[in-house]
Specification:
Elements: E1 7-8, H1 10-31, E2 39-44, E3 51-54, E4 60-62, H2 64-69, E5 77-82, H3 85-95, E6 101-105, H4 108-116, E7 126-132, H5 141-150, E8 153-159, H6 161-167, H7 178-188, H8 193-197, E9 198-199, E10 209-210, H9 213-226, E11 237-240, E12 246-253, H10 257-267
Parallel strand pairs: 1-3, 2-5, 2-7, 5-6, 7-8
Antiparallel strand pairs: 3-4, 8-12, 9-10, 11-12
Helix pairs in contact: 1-10
């Protein structure tokens, strides 16, 4: 039994609303596809306990797994993944006796590639919506790359710029811990993030100078398109705290133009971002 649920801020509440709204549209569209009929799957790679507490109000907030289970029309099957045993037990309780819901305990980087993504092959007329919402640099590029290459999976991705800025993208790259460099390389897929994050052209001495968040985000957006192979990657939505600092960027990537258009409309809705 979980004694303390995760407390979430307003930007996390907004993210949950965005994913819920798109999941409903996605499931409706896929459910009406008849020629050929498509089997659609919901995947949550960092599922958590399935329920949170709002830091603003102190009230319980349904998490992304619980929101997905209430989408109408329903997905054909659901996969919830988490490393934490207590959170997995909570997900098991939420699942109840539903045979269409599978809960996985372990590293999502392995579980997605070996167990879940193979259930969403394009040639099998299967499609999937996958939420990749790590707390920091805990996701491997291979997962994003494989999703893009399969052409059957759409993703929402938490791009953890706060973790990057705090632990990796320091003004002096030589002061970064080698373990944090390794985490960044794993997330980015190689060390080409250095070219996006630092440049020498702005000074007379050849010293590396740190670029801004937007430059790094644009480089990753291009990488999702050119390397992972997603055809449509709209500009991500910056999630800001009460000090107007960006906590993370919410990316969406797909192979369908209509999907990108729907997400752009959802991203552009007026929202009250920031703690009240």
């Amino acid at each position: 039994m979980i004694n303390r649920l995760d407390e979430i801020n307003i930007w996390s509440e907004i993210k949950l609303e965005i994913v819920k709204e798109y999941a409903s549209a996605y499931s409706t569209i896929l459910n009406h596809q008849k020629n050929p009929a498509l089997y659609h799957i919901y995947i949550d790679a960092f599922a958590g306990a399935g329920i949170h507490v709002s830091r603003r109000t102190g009230e319980f907030i349904p998490g992304s797994p619980l929101n997905a289970l209430h989408v109408k029309p329903p997905f054909k099957e659901y996969h919830f993944i988490d490393l934490d045993r207590l959170k997995v037990e909570s997900l098991d309780r939420l699942r109840g006796k539903r045979s269409d819901v599978m809960v996985h305990e372990g590293d999502c980087n392995e579980i997605l590639l070996n167990k879940v993504f193979p259930r969403a092959r394009y040639k099998d007329y299967r499609r999937a919506l996958c939420l990749l919402d790590p707390y920091g640099l805990h996701l491997d590029w291979n997962v994003m790359f494989q999703a893009g290459q399969m052409k059957s999976i759409e993703i929402f991705l938490n791009f953890p710029i706060a973790d990057m800025n705090r632990n990796v993208l320091l003004h002096d790259i030589n002061k970064v811990d080698s373990k944090d460099i390794a985490r960044m390389n794993a997330f980015w897929g190689d060390d080409s993030w250095r070219q996006a994050a630092y440049e020498t052209s702005r000074n007379l001495f050849g010293w590396e100078e740190k670029t801004d968040n937007e430059t790094i985000v644009k480089a990753f957006q291009k990488r999702l398109k050119k390397v992972a192979g997603f055809k449509y990657v709209p500009d991500p939505m910056p999630m800001r705290n009460s000090n107007n600092a960006v906590v993370y960027y919410l990316f969406f990537a797909s192979h369908k133009p209509v999907a990108a258009d729907i997400v752009k409309q959802i991203f552009n809705k007026p929202r009250n971002i920031g703690d009240n």
